[in-house]
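[stage:ingest] chain + small molecule (nicotinamide-adenine-dinucleotide)
[stage:ingest] validated
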Amino acid sequence: MNQFLIKPRVQFGANALDYLSQVSARHAFIVTDKAMVKFGLADEVTRRLSQRGIAFSIYDDVAPDPDISAIVNGMKIMDMHYPDLVIALGGGSVIDAAKAVIYSLWHTRKDVNRAKPQFIAIPTTSGTGSEVTAFSVIKSQSEKLVLVDEFMLPDVAILDPVLVKSVPASITADTGMDVLCHALEAYVSRTASDFSDALAEKAVQLVFGYLIDCHREGSNVFAREKMHNASCIAGMAFTNASLGITHSLAHALGGVFHVPHGRANALLMAQVVAFNADLEGHCDTEAAKRYASLAKNLSLPSSSVREGVESLIVAINVLKDEMNMPKGIQATGVSEIDFNTRLGEMVGQALRDSCTPTNPRDVNEKQLETLYRNAF
Ligand code: NAD
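[stage:predict] done
[stage:export] tokens:
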């Protein structure tokens, strides 16, 4: 029996944040980070809550790639305020932290009858799609763990492109490549469906159509809106279809060497497309055909499956080059000696990552190690 789930109401477009002017609550608990406070984005939220007479408290101690201590601290503070509304304002790290705090608090507390608060996610990066996914990625020591539970799905996602204007060019590049990776991996996943395919195809087109514009001109609200939508659409695809080994490898690389998530995906994506397509062999896998069909949708040369796969790989690399992204893991500041020392650990993490089983091609330790080495 198959299923396709879309949970949150999605408010999108310029002024989408004004949705907050319709919300009713007694006390809002805002999970965010210091950058959101510094850039005045938290003020945009609290101003609207105050106009509604809603009291609020702010937890802004979430750092990129949140770890268990951020969740435990968030639980303590949220519990003191007894909120009936939780608002996550930030990138994937903040939204994931809010999800994990809500989940942990409501699954460990004694008074199980207390109602779950209304949960609104307001992404300020166009990358993870976390506002519509049932996932939360939390770091435990140097391993990124993926929590999966529909309980964590927000009730409302607010996609306001104005909130993304302040994202610096390098983070625009990283997060934009994350969107592309979500769409590509959902499209070739073992559990892809007609529903997730439609969303993934659209997300891929939006990324190739608008990411460069966002990178060149951060204040281009039209392009920002397209990428913000793409991120959410790709999130809807992969929360249903799941992902593949680009993410498995990227989770371990991010966990061990703190490479930002989207950048890690960008470093590994083209290698994984070639591997899944069996480009060095017959290039006749199901995944190869799917990559070639995406290339055709993008009007890239694709007179044969092999040509389509190769064109897609070239297009991915051109996108990265145009945004001056690092060409290899070493260029992100990881030394050769450290890389070799931690390689076995990363391979082990990637092999047991929850994204590995849905990768279209089976993979073993040796192949994961080769993918890392080629990306170094
Ligand atoms: P992020 O949330 O870590 O943010 C990166 C940086 O951008 C931070 O310093 C943040 O303060 C800053 N930032 C955010 N919004 C900004 C804005 N509007 N203006 C200026 N600066 C801004 O980055 P991310 O890529 O959005 O999230 C990455 C995390 O999400 C990783 O931990 C990754 O593993 C996880 N993730 C989760 C899912 C999911 O489904 N839950 C999917 C993919 C990735």
